[in-house]
Amino acid sequence: MKLEFDANLCRGHGRCYTLAEDLLEEDDEGYVTARGQIVDVPPDQVEDARNAAGSCPERAITILED
After folding, report:
1. Which SUPFAM superfamilies does the entry mention (predicted)?
2. What span, in angstroms and rounded, lies between the C-alpha atoms of 62 and 28?
């Protein structure tokens, strides 16, 4: 599984960051950035990734199934 992050859609709500801190990081202005535009999700973080994607009101995070 992978997460695709669209920084152009992000409005800085921060919901996803709080649910998947190991996959996403916050910039100096409070916007969430991905560690790479497409992030490989380790098996033990799949649930966090799904929760983070589902929490984004802007739909800036897309789940890509392998």
Report:
1. 4Fe-4S ferredoxins
2. 23
pTM value is 0.85
The CATH number given to whatever domain includes residue 46 is 3.30.70.20
Residue 33: both structure tokens together: 């950035």
Domains: count for the chain: 1
Question: What pLDDT, on a 0 to 100 scale, did the predictor assign at position 37?
Answer: 78
- The burial of 41, by beta-carbon neighbours within 10 Å (0-12 exposed, 13-18 middle, 19 or more buried), is given as buried
Q: Whole domain around residue 26: which residue ranges?
A: 2-64
Cα angle at 19 between 17 and 20, to 5 degrees?
65
Task: Locate 13 and state its tokens.
Answer: 């709500």
Residue-wise pLDDT tens digits, 9-34: 889 888 998 999 888 888 888 787 76
